[in-house]
Amino acid sequence: MSADSVFQTLHGLAVLMWLGGMLATCTILRPAGLAVPSRVQRLQRLVDIFPRLFGGVWAAVLILPISGVALLRLRFTGFETAPRDVQIMMGLYVVMVALFLRMQGLQLPALRKAVAAQAWTDGAIAMKKLRRLAVGGLLLGLATVVLGMARQF
Fold this sequence. Notes:
Oligomer: single chain
Organism: Pseudomonas baltica
Helix content: over 70%
Radius of gyration: 18 Å
Protein name: DUF2269 family protein
Pfam families: CopD (PF05425)
Keywords: Membrane, Transmembrane, Transmembrane helix
């Protein structure tokens, strides 16, 4: 297996992990949470679930730039000679990391704090903000995949 194939595989798996986490947040956790009649139980469960879900996203956050830079070095002579679509994908990665850091660093702690204080309205507000950030990250991620796949063909 060539170095290019190894890094391409790692890159693809990292994308799947990240988008899978955002997709699960948007399409699985929300309906599952709404199925729990008690808002208290729903928020308590989400506080337990998010750190597990975000573990895979953190792995992707670390793997993507490593594999991406490796692919860039293997296929082009550097950042400045990379095609425009590759440069756009790098920019979208930075924006997606910023959204994820906001989720992890601001909204998840706000959700935990609200649940610990039994401030259920505040918890619901934090959860709504988490969901919005996840939707934004998912849409940006899908746009990035479209750019990457369009380059393949």
